[in-house]
Amino acid sequence: GAVVSQHPSRVICKSGTSVKIECRSLDFQATTMFWYRQFPKQSLMLMATSNEGSKATYEQGVEKDKFLINHASLTLSTLTVTSAHPEDSSFYICSARSVAGRTDTQYFGPGTRLTVL
Amino acid sequence: KQEVTQIPAALSVPEGENLVLNCSFTDSAIYNLQWFRQDPGKGLTSLLLIQSSQREQTSGRLNASLDKSSGRSTLYIAASQPGDSATYLCAVEVLNGQNFVFGPGTRLSVLP
Fold first, then answer.
1. Both ends of chain A: CA-CA distance in Å?
2. Is A9 close to B102, i.e. CB distance below 8 A?
3. Which residue of A has its CA nearest to B38?
4. Do the Cβ atoms of B99 and A104 come within 8 Å?
């Protein structure tokens, strides 16, 4: 089946630094990728929708200047957390949408655990 | 390795019926279990979150139960409506929060 990878799986950084998370669709082209985050003991929340070649659409309450999303190719989307702070510590998961024929399916990455010290 | 399965893969029911979706996971050492709804071309909508220490959660017409020892969860939908038509995913978070393991989903169609 289709596979979506994320890198890194875990990252620990100091406050004020920027962290880039990659989301790759390994065996299909994804025109749309979704980024989610989940804080401890909370549900997964959609952050933004990333469309290849265009600007991402951010959900209400998500700062687009802080969470930079780039979807430069059909197999790669990146999420950069700029000037990270401890409150940004969270689990970030991406999903990639595969549209093949009449099938419209979304595949999820394994997630990235970000810890900001 | 944690594996999550969902039964049935697809379900079509007439409006008004009560229905049950099943989720099974192979490793009972989980942090929590979540049920999601996914509409075509859309992101996930979290429906219910059950912590490993809990046995059930309710939200409106939805009730989810968790039996961690047997590796099972059920999502009960009461008085189904056409607007409930979507794919329902369950996902388990393994201990230490390393990753989520999602089930393949149940595609539900509620016919008016």
1. 37
2. no
3. A106
4. no
